[in-house]
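seq:
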Amino acid sequence: MDYEDQLDRALDQSPDIAGSGERFQVPEPEVRQEGNVTVYENFQETVDELDRDDAHVVKFLQNELGTSGHIDESGRARLTGSFTATRIEAVVEAYAEAYVLCSECGLPDTRLEREQGALSLRCEACGARSPTGS
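struct:
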């Protein structure tokens, strides 16, 4: 196998990262008030776009908003207290910066990995590893 064949093979096997981070779009939060609870209607859609565990995302929301909450049987996040869609959107963006987007190349092609008890972010596009806050 010559160099050109090897190069073609490598390009065929590498992930498609063409374009920019613009392909990563987190849906705007759809929230409504239900008594003293804020219901995040499209939480599951957001988690799917982030490609992260829903329990990890809701824990981050709870910590940042200073509240308690849970995920109901329909996949909606129910947060105790009154929060606007703008406030929740800011927290989701902070989550994406900390746990989804690569700090080196800015692409969302990352995975969370636990190494020796510490959580780190590994980029599948550029190979960078970076520690996370938790």
